[in-house]
Amino acid sequence: MTLPTAPFNLQRPPLTHCNNCGAKLQSCIPPGDGHERMVCPACGTIHYENPKLIVGCIPIWEGKILLCKRAIEPRYGYWTLPAGFMENGETTADGAARETLEEAGAEVKNLTPYTVIDVPYVHQVHFFYRAELVSLDFASGEESLDVRLFSEDEIPWSELAFFTVIETLKHFVADRKAGQFEFRQMQIRNKPVP
Amino acid sequence: MTLPTAPFNLQRPPLTHCNNCGAKLQSCIPPGDGHERMVCPACGTIHYENPKLIVGCIPIWEGKILLCKRAIEPRYGYWTLPAGFMENGETTADGAARETLEEAGAEVKNLTPYTVIDVPYVHQVHFFYRAELVSLDFASGEESLDVRLFSEDEIPWSELAFFTVIETLKHFVADRKAGQFEFRQMQIRNKPVP
């Protein structure tokens, strides 16, 4: 394994070259397809681009909620639930638990599906689980400046990183007050950040 | 828009070339990342590969279920619920309705989330909605040999295309008998087809 000599590029640039043969791509609608795709004129490979799943947790300890202060863009310095891109080969719950371990150094158990939120303008679907913290053993990962437990009236509403986190926490607080948690599916159709 | 001269390649070959500059990729773990990625040594682009969402419907008309007989591989000739890859820019419900229109020529309304099924060995998550057919106006699309309404005791269990369809229909039949539909999240961890 060799590290590349060029600096890493974390942006996802538009597709311009074929990832099978390296030739320059063209845009067209393949036969039997209703969508314009980037297609390789040399080897015929069709490059499909599809939405990505973000998976995360609401980790709970004695009624308190674990939040992470972001050490990365977007929304550096804002608070979030531990969450991130689901990886190939894992389940949504595996991914939510892995992200909680990576960002908050925390183990979770008893994951229960809670919110699925469509965010079509960024081609994402966010999936949050309710979960129990296994212990008070947690610590900031590389992507977090701080990790803390918040009681309900301490939640930093104006400093939350994303609408999907705000909506998930709003419903969590309301459902807990009502004494019953209900699975919810929602859409966020406007601005990406609060 | 020009069609490429090479035949279309519907397979998804492994990533070998950078889709930003066309250079040959190398495999490495980028700093701060826990996963091996295909990275471009020339321009530094990291090529993330993530699971895809399959979205679909259980379209219902007077208690009967609409199924499509597949005109494409995999599972040519087997019956399935209308479903397919979610596209960029749409919500999960948009996608489920679009696939139902494309595969079965059918309009649906009142979509309610029903099953979310992890299929980690093929890097997919399948999301099915319960839905009502708007009318009896339906017909095979390009990807279907036949489209038909099935009463519960007509469901062709041994000719269903995918485990996620079997599990979704099993729960649907059981929930209807019990008089209450419940959102369910599951995992299928073994063979891709029945």
Multimeric state of these chains? homodimer
Order of helices and strands of chain A: EEEEEEEHEEEHE
Assign a percent range to the helix content of chain A: 10-25%
Q: What's the alpha carbon Rg of chain A, rounded to whole Å?
A: 19 Å
DSSP strand (E) fraction of chain A?
25-35%
What is the terminal separation of chain A in angstroms?
Answer: 41 Å
* Count of DSSP-assigned helices of chain A: 2
Q: Could you explain the architecture of this structure?
A:
Two copies of one chain form a homodimer. The mean pLDDT of chain A is about 90. With about 190 residues, chain A is of the alpha+beta class. Helices cover about 15% and strands about 30% of the residues of chain A. In chain A, strands 4, 5, 6, 7, 8, 9, 10 and 11 form an eight-stranded mixed beta sheet that branches. A three-stranded antiparallel beta sheet of chain A has the order 1-2-3, with no helix packed on it. Chain A has two helices and eleven strands; from the N terminus they run βββββββαβββαβ. Chain A is elongated, with a radius of gyration of 19 Å. At the A-B interface, β1, β3, α1 and β8 of A face β1, β3, α1 and β8 of B.
